[in-house]
Every structure is written in structure tokens, then in C-alpha cells.
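Minutes, project check-in

Agenda point 3 was the complex the collaborators sent over. CS summarized: three entities, 976 residues total, and the question is how they sit relative to each other. Sequences were read into the notes so everyone works from the same version.
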Amino acid sequence: MRRLLRGEAAVWGLLVCLSAAMAGVSFGYGVTREGGQVGPGFLPLVSGAALAVISAACLLRSVRRAAPEPEEEAADPRRVRTLWTVFGMLLVALLLVPLTGFLVAFGLLVFAVSAFVEKQRIVSAAGVAVAATVVIYAVFVLFLTVPLPAGLLGVGGDG
Amino acid sequence: MRAALAAAVLLLGVTACGGTNAGAGSGGGAWKPRGDVRMIVPFAAGGGSDLAGRSIAAALEKAQPGLKVTVENRDGGSGAVGYSALLGKKGNGNYLLATENAILSLPISGQVSFTRKDFTPVAKLAEDGGILVVKKDSPFKTCTDVVNAAKSGRVSVGMSGAYGVDNVIFTLIEQKTGVTFQRVPFESGGELVPAVLGGQVQVALLNPGEVIGQFRSGDLRGLCVTTDERYTYPELASLGTAKEQGIDVSYVQFRGILGAGGLDEREKAYWVQAAKGITRTAEFQKWLKDNYLQQSELYGDDFAAYLEQLDTALAPLLKKPS
Amino acid sequence: MLDNLMMGFGAALTPANLLWCFVGVLAGTVIGLLPGLGSTTGVAVLLPLTLSFEPLTALIMLAGIYYGAQYGGTITSVLISTPGEAASVVTAIDGYQMARRGRAGAALSIAAIGSFVAAIVSLVLLVAMAPPFAKLALDFGPPENLAVMLLGLTTIVSFSSGARLRGLAMAVLGILLATVGVDAATGLPRYTFGDVDLLSGLPFVQVMIGLFAVGEVLYQIRQGAAAPIRARFRDLVINREELSRSKGAIARGSLIGYLLGCLPGAGSTLASFLAYGVEKRVSKHRDEFGHGAIEGVASPESANNAAANANFVPTLALGIPGGATTAVLLGAFMMYGIQPGPLLFDEQPELVWGLLASFFIGNVLLLVLNLPLAPLFAQMLRIPYGYMYPLILVTSFVGAYSIDNNMFSVWIVFVSGLVGYFMKKFDLPMAPLVLGLVIGPLFEKALVQTSAMGDGDLTLILTRPIALVVLALAALLVAGPSLLKLLPRREKETV
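CS then shared the predicted structure for the full assembly.
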């Protein structure tokens, strides 16, 4: 519970910094144009400043709240680990795209998540992965002629 | 189940083979694109540039049997996103782009990292003139009226984008006559038509294809055209040129094809040759007629020379004093 | 009028036109199902296939894709919280909650029924009086649009489940993030750091896919993946109470959608948000909103579909695109050699009335298609989540890539997915963020134009009667609850 609260304060803190920075930069874009017309920096300045104020208020509120109401039970650490495993696999799949091409990278992702995270039988995980890849190839590449990145292997899509 | 799986694997294998030969296109003799050709349109689907790209793509397919040209809209940043996408395809003969004046006005603006020299000019195919239009009950009868009104008061004009042809023309008029217009920014010609109709702006510059329906119903009126000579289309022949009305401005939008940069001679030769067949197709002629364009052909190096000439003329006029 | 419509049905009811109408609505439903691929992309991609058709047949099919996609987008919003396009974001809020409670079938059915009723209502209005509405739409200049955007922003309070400050923060964040990219008026790049892909701004459809679809998957994994929902077949069908609760919502949604759809540019996303906001104000079941209120599905779906049809008002009556997809359709008109404009109804009566008649036919087809399919689709939730989510992830990323064939989109989905996860974790509402992203650029455009028209003086808006009326509506929507609090007391006194 403590941690969740600290996390929330961090989110608001981050938003304060982001909005203040964006509002600061907006002066460089010209808040008004000749003749006092609204310039390119106007909306970034106004919305940035407004967000900074709102986030600061929320930050204060979440820091001050002494006894937080029970919002939710803490998540099971194992599940949190699973979550980050899947997220990591997603990142790996995205990084593999230039190498293996889109279809292979995401086919592998389906297989890896099904087989190792969700602990399905290897054969059925492979079946699901291949079927998904084929369906995506049929719909996106053949029907909608989307040139999916083929990677160095050159599988599916164009070069 | 097993059979289906085997079939699926087989299908995947076949497609894999189908995919690999798309990229490699070298070998002796004349070059030909392998696999699908992509025509990038640097503006959103539905506008004049999109129509141009799609019509030229269809005409190209007809002129070169067996060629498949897929149109891809890459809009954003007044065209900057689309041109930048082609920039990333350097040396790839399978990419074309439906080009127009943004190729010059974007680099002059100083906001993009490319210039016309980063691409391979293939062909200029047509020219699209501009018409200054007003609502039917407007007091203006000619472009001279507009300039005179701007001398003594405010005349609001609609702009279809920061780097549009209309911006160039209104800037030219301002420089020639010493007036200043009140500019109201819009994002496309499609937004300008209702703005003029609804009286939100007094004058706008639009392509004939964008306003012909409103002309025929009488809701909008043309004042003058910005082409060098009057139109020969009967519906537009009565409109005088800006020059006739004493405003020494003439500027048109060109429509053409650009290839990626860094193409070798054989690739360039193929595309110039292919483009030469375009104007003979029925598809192309229909597009010209439906949109009231003028055929105007320049190929390869001639097109490059045209761009260079226009660029040197425009740059000093449009470069903003910083 | 009726003669014309009869002639239209005569033209639309040929076997070939019926077949392609069916193909169109089916393809549209599939395209709507795929995340990221909205009707605009669908129509643009399939346009070349129709070039060899008769113009009427081609337009019937393309229009079928357009409104078919409106139906399809609902299905994934409800079942897996993955809106197919921005107009379905609102549906995902209560629709997904209904699905988690085993009422997916009902949510999908009411969406189909609401969409159908809205389509018929808006079509009747379209057929009967397109020209006056088109004329009215022309009176909506920049100051009026600015007022409409402000009205849209007032709906934020409806999406923040209690914590208004959080909702406001997210909406303002959306507006702030929407300023990334080239400024439309001056061509100045803002917050792009020299990156070419950022020139066109943060692509909100990709952001939306990341926030909703990927964020939800990550959050579900953390929560220990909800158990598959095994609803009895009886529970999959919509019941009488749900139907009667939705009546008013559908009527109001249809009207709001039609009015906003007539305005070029405002569009169906704004309509769906506004309809939801209004419904939350007037509904007797206000507290259920956000937790699976059926009105929360019925009203935005009706509004979204009515707006999609109303987009044809300026398109057909004036030759001005009502939205992105109708712009592509107008392009298609030109490719078939038909000159759109105010004379279209007079010069091409068979084509226009045939097209309008096909809308009626297409919507009937969609209702017939969707009603029995609703319980069937709902059965998909029986699949254990462990099998489902890898597939949701893959389709989200492929769908995002196919929007503009760019890996940049894919990375945007990835990052937004992470953001979406944290937003769920800290209970920050997502809908206001999407609303801010969608409205931001429109709001800024109207603001800049108004200031240009008034030479820097924004009080111009106060001299325009229509703008004032819209602003008064906005004020009513904000102050409404406090006024309503006074009402029931009086009622009690009299009873």
C-alpha cells in the first residue's frame, strides 16, 4: 500500500516536470504572432501551465493523505514478475523485427508467451503461433497489401 | 489437424520464397522492378494530390502491363512526412512519389532536412492552375477589386496550409501590389470551400477541380486565374488571368512523379521510359479532363532543370527574413 | 421525394448491387474488428479493386465498408477493451465492464440495435432534409467550432469516476501532447527534436491501441488473468429491462450524432463522447456509468453511427467532405467521373438515391448479421485469457503497423502500452486523455482561426449567436448537476 502511494506521488511529480518543461519550451515557439494573434506556442503554454498546476495539486493530495483508503490488495509478486517477463519478450520481439521480419518475430512471441509463460504444451503453442502467423499474413499482406518489414530473412512483405 | 498444420507450414514457406525475390533486382541488361511498386502520396486520402497519385498509378499500370502500383498515403507536416519516407528508401527503385510544389516550398521553409536534389525527378505530367474565388453575393468582380479593397481595408483570405501554393500566390500578389491580406489558416482546400461558402473568409485560391461543382450551381464565382494564359475548358474560358487584370503574378502547381534518391542509370531510364507512356492512357486523359488540368510533360533531366529554375526563382521570394 | 427513394431502391436492389453491398458491409465489419484499421484506411485500400465496377455498385460497396466498420469496431471494444477506432473508445468503458460481468452478448446486441436505429433515424433526416442542414453547417465557422470544442471538453467530468481532478489532468495532458508535431498554421515543428515521424504529431489511434489494448493485457496479467466467462446462453441475449433502459439513450445519441455529424470536421468521435456525457447527466442510473451501464454502450454507439451517416449531408449536398472517410469517397466520385457538388442530386439522381437506398439495405444487412453473431462473439470470452492475450498483442501491433506502414507506429503502441498499464495501476482515467488528443488539434485550429479572424481578439466569439447558444449548452452541461439537485426536492414536496 505504501509503495502504491509512493508510486502515485512519483507519477504526479513526473507530470509536473513534463508539463513545466513543455510550457517552458513553448516560449521559444512564439506565444503570440504579429497583431496579438494566437501563435504556435500559445496552447502548449496554456495547457502546460494548467497541467503543472493540476498535477502539483494532485501531488500534494497524495503526499498528505495520511491513512490511504484500501484501494486494492497488493498484487501477487509472481504475477508482477510474469507481467514484466511478457513485457520483456515484447521488447525482444520488436528488436528482432529488423532481423527476422515482422511475421517471424511476432510468431515467435506468440509461441514463447504461450509455451513458457502460459505453460502450454509445446506442440499446441507452436500450432497457435503458426496459425496466427498465417491468418495475419492472409489478412494483412495478401488482402490489405501491407508491406510488413521482411527483415534480413526476407519473410513476408517487401524488401 | 496435423494436415492443416502441415499445409500452414507449407504456405508459410511458399510466402517466404515469394518475399525474398522482391528486393534483389540486379543482373545484366535492362532493369525492371521486381514485385509491387509503391506510390507514396504525401497528403491525406481524398485530396487533390491523392487523386493525382491514384490516377497516375492507375495510368502507369495501364502503360506498363504487368506492373502493380500500390498507393500509400503518408500524410503529415504539409507533405514533409511523405517526402521523408521516400528519403529513407534511397537506392530502392520500387518506390515512387506523387510530387507537386511542396518539394520546393518545404526545403525553402528550412524545416526539413531534404532538398529536391535528394530525389530522382522522373516526370512532370500536368499543371493545375489556381482560381481566386468568392461567394456569389461578394462585391468583388475581379482580382483588381480584391487588391483595391485590400489597399483601403481588410480582406480576409483562406490559406490551405503553411506551404501551400495559395500561400505562394498571395505572397507574390502582396509583393507585387504592396497590400497585406488578413490570412486565416486552414488545413486543406476541402476546408476552404465551406469557409468561403459560409462567409468565414472573403477570398480563397482553389484548384478548378475543387470548385467546379460550386461554379456550376452558382454558389461560388471565379475572379481570375493564376495561369499564364486563359483556360481552354469552356466552363473556365471566360475567366481572365491575373496578368490581364494588371496583377503581374503567374504561378501554377505541377503534378509529377519522383523516384527515390540514388537510383542508378538503368533504374532511372526504366522509370522515365515508363512515365512516357502515362499521358497516352485513357485513365490519365480522364483525370486531366475531370479535374481541369493542363497536360504539360517534362521527363528526367528536363524535369530536374525545371525544378532548379523554379527553385531559384522562388527561394528569394519565400525565404522568411530571420 | 418518395418517388426518388423508390427509384433509388430500384437501382440498389439489383442482384449485383445487393451482392457488393453485402461484401462491403462484411469487409467493413472485418476491417472495423482489426485494431487501427479504421474505415478511412479500409476504403482507401479497397478503392482500387472497385475501379472496374459500375459507379453506383462501387460506391455502394465502398459506403458499405464505411458504415460496416462502425459496427465492427464495437465488437473488440466490448470483448477485449480494444477500440478499433477513436469513436469506439467510449463504448469500451461500459461495454468492457458489461462483458466482464457476463453481459457481453447484451452489450453487443444493444450496440447493433442502437447503431441500426440511429442509422435509420439519421438516414430519414438525411433523405428528407439534407440541404437545410448543409446550409446550417456552413454557418459553423471557426468561432462556432471553437464553441463546439469547448462543449466537447465539458464532457471530461463524465469520464473521471468521482475524481474530477484526475480526469481534468488527463484531458489537459492529452491536449498538451497533441501539440507535438508541425503547427498547422505556421508550419513550425514543435517538440519533434528533429524526428521526422513526430512531424505529424503523436498518432492518436496508435496511442489509443497502446493504452487500451496493450495496457489492459499487461494489467490483466498482473491481476492474475480473469477467469474465462462462462455465461449461459440465456444470459447472452439482451433482456427486456436492458432494452427499455436503452430507448432514451438511443434516441438522444442518434440526435446528437446527427447534429455533430453534419458539421464538417467535428466527426463521430466527438459525438460519441458528447452523447455519453449527456447520458450520464440525464440517466436515472448515473452511478452505474463506468461499471457497465447499458446506456453507456447504447448512446455512444448510436451517436457514432448517426454521425457517420450525417457526414454524408455536406458530402452529397455540397460536395464538401464531412470527415476523413467521406473525403476518400468524394475522391472516388471523381475517379468514376462524377462531379460532386450542389448539383449532384439533380444531375445524378439515380446514383445518389441508389446510394441512399443502399444505406437502408446495408444497415438491415448489418443488423441481421450482427444480432445472431452477438452471442456467438460473446462466446469468445470462454477462451482462457492465457490463450487470448498473445493474440491480442500481435493483432494490436500488426494493426498499428498497417496504419501507415511504419515501425514508428509500433513503438508508439509499445510505449503507450506501458503508459496505459501505469494509468490503470494508479486508476487514472484513459478516456479523457484520448478525448484531449482528439480534440486538441481541432481546438487549436479553431482557436488560431478565430484569433486570425478577429485580428487577435478572441471576444469575436461573443458576437456570433450560434456560438453563444453552443456555449450556453456547455454551461448547462457543467452546471446541470447542481441545478438538478434542486429539482427532486421540489418533486418530493409536490408528491
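Noted in discussion: The two ends of chain A are 51 Å apart (CA to CA).
Follow-up: revisit at the next meeting once the mutant set is ready.
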